[in-house]
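Batch job 17 of 40 flagged for manual review because the log was empty.
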Amino acid sequence: LVVPPHTDPADMTATGPTSMSAPVTENVTDGMHPSLRNSLRRNSSGASSLSIKTGSLSGWDAIRASLSSQSSRSLRGGLPRKHKSSKRLRESSTKAVKDARGGAAVKSRSSLGFSASAIYFLVLERTWWYCALVIAGVFALSLGVCALLCMAVGGFHDPLDSTASAPLRFAASHVLTMSFGMVTPVTEASYALAVTQCFLGVLLNVFMFTFVITKFQRPLAHMLLADSACLCTRAGEPFILVRIGNLRCNTLHRAEVTLTLLRRKKTPEGETFVSRTTLSLQEPPRTLTAVATVAHKIIPQGPGGVFMDLATGRKTSEELKDLLLQCIVTAYDPIYDAEVCAVKVYGAQDFARGCVYADVMSIDEKGEAVVDFERIHDVLPQKIKIFPPLKDSWDGPEMSRPARMLEVVFGGGRACYGSKDETFPTLGPLTAMEQTCSYCYKLALLLNEADVEYIPYIANISLGDDKPDWLEACNPKKETPVARLQGRTEWIAGSDVIMSTLAETDERVRAVIERRREDVNDNHEQVVKKALMSVLGGVMFGPTVGLKRAVKIGGVGVMLLKMVGLVTPDIEKEVEEEMKKQMERKGAESEASSEDIVVDVDDVDEGLNVRSLVQTCMSEAFETIERLIACGHGDEGRMFLCGKAPGVMDFGAAVDLAFFFQPSFEVFLAKHDIRYRVGPNCRAWHARMTSLPHWRSGMGAGHSDGRAAAMKTIITKLVLWSKDPGYPERAASEELLRSTMRDFPPAYIEDTGKEELRSDDMDAVNGGTSLDSVTAKLCV
């Protein structure tokens, strides 16, 4: 839809009892174009457009009707794009550009009509066919009138003695050639008539010549805007993308692109109007050559937050039918020495959710850049879901109505809490909220591997922070992950329960869960699971602490050792009996009450050394993976623990063992006398897992992989919950956190003032191909 300067959307909106009911014409830019090369090698230039009359609708309904008719009309109009001739493309492009300059509401000019005062404007505004018809009509009418006058006056001589055509030839020679012809006047009256007709011919020819020259001199933009605007994410942050194509591929300077959000509002007094909000653009182009994409970063708390409702599926396009996005492109064309422009308006149904534009750049066999404008409207779905950096928890889901699609609540934390952190106050400034829960990570890997769409929510479950109230409504225990299936209102808690429930309802999830190898059993899985839990329990005790003494010390460390089976009920019973005997012996010696007797854990039998047992668990885990994984490019069925493709066991093992492939974590464990070795097959398996497209899509935020935030959460709990003073070592723990933040930068929020610590919005592309170089030159 093109809204001309003199036809404001606000003027087309019903205000009080008086509403505009004139029909509105929509000009849809048709994307059916042949491949066009750069400005030196292009074989055609043009765009297609359709004028769609919406009928006598009023106000906003007319705009919406014209927008909704785009797809159906474009399918009926014209031949397939590969059969369109260059001539037709140029003509349709001319009409599209004319429409962009103010022809969107021509049907509404009931007061203008066709008159002598408006003919100049109408001829310049409309197509060349219209111009030719007007010129032919004017000349035909003039010739007819002049021929009738000639017949009435008489007094002419015709050498051909053709009385029937003589008056017409008499008039044509004077009006068209502005001079006497074969039929000559012989009387004073006929001579005066001939001179008058010559003067009329001069006027007509001057005006018609002016029409033609002026139309040639008017700059034609030949710019094309994509049919759909994209709602996508960049580094996890929501963006709106609009693509612009310059069909002539010449360089346009001083380009200005404006995105305006149009929303219909109503005042308490009853006035209805259209509010306009200009949306800021990130790095708008200053020149336009072939194709450019402009991007607006959506601020959920700002006016553009309505796009988040559309992107996440919280509201449908029907519920946001008053949403309009206007895109205006203006640029200076040095060839015409004038400004060119293009306009398009997108409705809620014109947004491609979770999509990006398809690539239109390529190189031919000669190494020259080629722009394929046939694909300028094509969009591709974004397969990878990255979480945005947050200041705090997301707004919670709507509890009252069923879920539109699968909803999942993830657990969030931070890599640094700034000066308010009582445990590590000197790590740095406050960082952004990121997804840090390992159980959520496994679930996200499964969903992404199964290609299941879901709406994410991140709840702050950081130690010491207040958890959001809406999380308690989802799960009274305030634990993550929590999920709600499509069409349901009740929530499911626990990663295993969620996976099994999804397997019952979704074949894609069930197919991933059923990936198993015959030579891999549950015992192998349990051995691998022991590695991380045993290490975390081991560093919470000193290097000389034995298993029995650790049980008597107690705390979370013992709980972790029990989870991996190192602390058995028999050991706990032995320790309980020993402590009971010691209390009896000391009670007999001091003759004091049993309540006042304190058992010294140093007097207890140490038992097997905790760290030795932990090191054994780690070795068994890595040796198991080393045996199960094929070496190099061997058997494809042994590339992963679940076969040719990763499965649930791969996801769990990769998440649990991720820290062990981090050099700083290896140094941290070495300072606690815990050492391990990772074989080549295990490293190859880990490399395959981390190379998965969705490996980073379930953890972290933005360009952060969540490593620093997850490490901070674990180390802080170990330090605070340890019952053995001094372990884990505070200095080694802080050095581990600093090294992790340096090697794996966390996500920083924008108001930290630490620009030097914040990672770039985009990863650098090193070792670019020839296509990167050639297309970059063409675009710039």
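Reviewer: the log was empty due to a logging misconfiguration, but the result itself is present. The longest helix spans residues 188-217. Unflagging and moving on to job 18.
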